Amino acid sequence: MYSGGLLAILFGLADTLIALVIVVLIVYVVISWLYAFDVVSRRNPFVNSIHEFARRLTDPMLAPLRRLIPPIAGVDLSVLALILLLQLGRQLLPWLHGVLTGQGPVL
């Protein structure tokens, strides 16, 4: 995807980290739904530890969006907005790499 040196490694790492954050957000939402519909008990220590890890990782990123986007009918849309923003960032990484290395169009 990226060619050439340290900049390519950094952009590849950034892409991978963004993808991992998206996966953690999806896990967070799925476990929240499982809790909401009583599919999984909150007393399950394994699921609870995964949910707590995902919550602690994603809440700092979601807090600003939650102030801007109120829940609609009890559904938190800030997670969806963050996933869309992160995916947009992933789509812009190759363009930014091309601009910085002079191998791609500016616009």
Topology of this protein?
Blueprint: H1 5-36, H2 45-68, H3 78-101
Helix pairs in contact: 1-2, 1-3, 2-3
- Helicity level: over 70%
Mean pLDDT: 92
Radius of gyration computed on alpha carbons: 18 Å
Strand content: under 5%
Counting H and I runs of at least 4 residues, what is the number of helices?
Answer: 3
Task: Please give the number of β-strands.
Answer: 0
Multimeric organization? single chain
Distance between the termini: 19 Å
Shape estimate: elongated
Kindly name the structural category.
Answer: mainly alpha
Please characterize this protein's 3D structure:
This protein is mainly alpha-helical and 107 residues long. The chain has one domain (5-101). The protein has helices at residues 5-36, 45-68, 78-101. Helix 1 packs across helix 2 (45-68), helix 1 (5-36) runs antiparallel to helix 3 and helix 2 packs across helix 3 (78-101). The longest helix has 32 residues, at 5-36. 8% of the residues are buried. The mean pLDDT is 92.
